[in-house]
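User: Let's play a game. I give you a shape written as tokens, and you guess the letters that built it. Ready? Here's round one.
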């Protein structure tokens, strides 16, 4: 297990992409104590105070691997399993956000360069932002204590390696099944904001065989969604 810890960086994804370009093998991790330019999906800033997890891992795609975007499900399941091991009960929101009591705990960003896919993972361990457009939480807030980032990333690297092996050896099906077990229930009300700016409301209808979101509309039609911002509609 190759986990490299650095004090400060612009982005751990940038660090691992640079290692990939230099020929680093699959499985190398970089964890930063603090990021100055962390980013989430669609270019959002990721607030990065010390005490939380900021880490990225390198995957080298092989010819017979499942589709690369499904690594988002691998990462989500691995993070959820790790969070559970430390005592919290997360729910996954498509494709790979983790929520605890409806508030965001973790986010994952996949970036690709050639055969290299970098999975960047941020988990609110000790702190969470208060001034964003959606509720957020941390393990410290939900459990009353938080693991040290180096302890957490060691457990996460083990979980990710196990799920990556299954994804590669058995295909997407077992990953998809575990994802569904850890997700909000079928029938949960969702608001979906599509990349073109339009919106859809509907009910969660599971995942298709590739891991895309199935959204059942009021008229019974099912939309299969490959990219979107998804929000749980709370009662």
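Assistant: Ready! My guess for every position:
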């Amino acid at each position: 297990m190759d986990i490299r810890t650095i004090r400060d960086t612009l982005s751990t994804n940038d660090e691992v992409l640079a290692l990939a370009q230099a020929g680093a093998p699959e499985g190398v991790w970089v964890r930063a104590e603090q990021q100055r330019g962390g980013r989430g999906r669609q270019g959002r800033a990721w607030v990065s105070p010390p005490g939380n997890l900021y880490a990225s891992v390198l995957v080298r795609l092989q010819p017979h691997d499942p589709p690369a975007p499904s690594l988002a499900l691998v990462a989500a399941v691995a993070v959820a399993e790790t969070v559970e091991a430390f005592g919290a009960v997360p729910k996954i929101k498509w494709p790979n956000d983790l929520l605890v009591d409806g508030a965001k705990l973790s986010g994952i960003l996949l970036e690709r360069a050639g055969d290299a896919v970098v999975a960047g993972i941020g988990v609110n361990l000790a702190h969470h932002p208060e001034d964003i457009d959606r509720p957020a939480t941390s393990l410290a807030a939900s459990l009353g204590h938080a693991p040290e980032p180096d302890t957490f990333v060691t457990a996460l690297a083990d979980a990710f390696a196990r799920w990556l092996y299954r994804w590669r050896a058995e295909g997407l099906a077992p990953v998809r099944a575990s994802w569904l077990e850890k997700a909000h229930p079928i029938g949960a009300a969702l608001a979906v904001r599509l990349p073109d700016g339009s919106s859809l409301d509907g009910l969660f209808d599971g995942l298709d065989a590739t891991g895309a979101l199935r959204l059942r509309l009021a008229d019974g039609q099912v939309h299969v969604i490959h990219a979107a911002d998804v929000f749980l509609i709370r009662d």
